[in-house]
Amino acid sequence: MALSVAKPRSAKRLDYLDNLRSFALLLGLAFHVAIVYAADIKYPLRNVDRSWTFDVFGEWVHLFRMPLFFFLSGYFSERTFRSKGMANFVRLRGFRILIPLVSGIILFAPAQYYVAAVSNGYEHNYFVFFWNEFLLKSPKPSHLWFLQYLVLYTFLYVAIRPVLNRLGNFFLPESRYGNFSTGSIQVKRAEILLFLGFWSTFWTCLINYFFLKDQTFFTIEPVQFVYDISFFAAGSFFIGKESTIIDGVSSKIELGILGILALALFWCFYWIKSIDPFWSYFGYTGDWRRVLHIFLKCLGGWAWIAFFIRFFQFFISDRTEVSEYLRNSSLPVYLIHHPISLGIGFGIVQETWPIWAKFPLHLLLTYLLTFGIYHLLIRNSFFLNAILGNAKAKPAPAES
User: Fold this and answer.
1) Cβ atoms of residues 223 and 215 within 8 Å
2) Where do the Acyltransferase domain residues begin and end (predicted)?
């Protein structure tokens, strides 16, 4: 019996990846609302009545969402570098991420720390806190840590790009994994998934052996930094090898198997994190448990990334007015949503309503207010788009 095989619809921009990133962004808004009501996940704002359901959702989202962003950033960094050259790459990437990082830390990051301070008895207003406690003492990126890491990864990538290219060609030779190589693509994809799991596990175990998960140096957490850069670096390996994970023909049976695998890995990860708390030192409950814990975390993240890429290829690959709107709004929405969610949540958690009334109201108001502010104030404002890093960069001058 012939397999039901579907070839993803063509997309000049790989539109399904844009759609996937928009989905991950929307999921991030839900994540920041859900963890207010989670039983175990620590967050500056917490509801009195909490449920483990939100812990499961939060851990699931956290397993793949940021690794997905870093993986795609690594892939598109290499693609942009090859097509634009180093000077234009640095200029374009700097414009896209450095401007929103600086403006975001000033405008949006303090809200999280102010809410935490007020919860602990701080009595002065926001502006006093912003100047005396945040700006003069300890400015931190809050939810903008992603942009902070991405800035560092970008400049580090420029410095070590030759090494990454050699590693990519060594571990994933084009003769075996290139787009025009022969052999079973399903076998190659399984090999790629296993390699990526071991790749991220190796680097994360190595750094976790020397540093605790929550240790911080100059707002950088070494364990998180290395874990995420393993996804970013791996993304740069797949130029000319897209058919193994980013693009190419796939079957719905393959998609189903990948989904079952991803779900099983998540539940295994969720189980082992309960017996090997990640905040503890390496080997706290046994070396093998920590290695298995990190392996399930890494492989689970990669499995969900591969699943969602395939899923969006099949079912959500078209460019529409809605998808274009979400793509254009993604950076401003990412920047502004967190203080909006905290502000709404700060009012809602004071009420005595049941948790299943608070959460959907909190979620709905966060989406409505975030996109309302973008649509009415930011979307058509060149100035606001510019300070949020969303204005188009001017093209490089033509060489004479």
Assistant:
1) yes
2) 15-374
Distance CA 81, CA 96 (A): 15
Q: How many domains does the chain have?
A: 1
Question: Region 15-44: what's the mean pLDDT?
Answer: 94
* pLDDT 10s digits, 375-394: 999 999 999 998 888 866 44
> Counting Cβ atoms within 10 Å, is residue 274 exposed (0-12), middle (13-18) or buried (19+)?
exposed
Percentage helix, strand, coil for the chain under 3-state DSSP, each rounded to 5: 70, 0, 25
DSSP, residue by residue, 19-60: HHHHHHHHHHHHHHHHGGGBSSS--SS--SS-BHHHHHHHHH
Q: Is residue 320 part of a domain?
A: yes
| Structural domain contains residue 349 | yes
Where in the sequence is the domain holding 148, given as residue range(s)?
5-387
Residues 28 and 242: their CA atoms lie apart, in Å, by: 26
- Give residue-wise pLDDT tens across range 66-114: 999 999 999 999 998 988 888 888 888 877 888 899 999 998 888 888 8
| Cα–Cα dist 82/85, whole Å | 6
Residue at 133 is within a domain: yes
In angstroms, rounded to a whole number, what is the distance separating the alpha carbons of residues 228 and 74? 11
Residue 81 burial (CB count, 10 A): 19
Residue 396 in any domain: the answer is no
